[in-house]
Amino acid sequence: MKKRLISILLVLVLVLCTMPIGQAYAKSKKYTTLKIPTEDYESDTILSELISDVDYTTQVSGTNTLLKFKTDDLQKFLKELKKDINSTIKEITKSGNLTKISLSKDMKKINITQKKEANDEESLSLLGLYISTMYYQFFNGTAYNKIDCYITVKDTKGKVIEKGSFKDSFN
Question: What is the pTM assigned to this prediction?
Fold first, then answer.
């Protein structure tokens, strides 16, 4: 259990440190190109681990790194990512403590209903869900300055316990 927790934490740190920051640059029927400021683009290796089933090319253009994907492959990846996110939600709510988790269609809002404060395992799972929604936004073409995730936690009576956004947590 300790090794698993450490592994999860290392992956989360890696993901947080290398969060791709970009926006849709161009989209045609065959290809979609996403733009990441080169200073924020860490490594092709990290990206290839995240989207291992998707072929893409990288090209540096001025101050940006352009990632070019086949549109069909990117859409398949987004479908799988959404499926994984929904699977994670089902897994998290199995414990019974977090009774309901819902996402907005654009993946920018997460609403959580809980019986009591989340335990460590639930908290880590929620963090992974939180990060996954922002990856979804990125690969779906959300502009760099628009990527965010707003979370609202309520008790079973509907009273808001906690709320905030990814961007707010850094201000």
Answer: 0.71
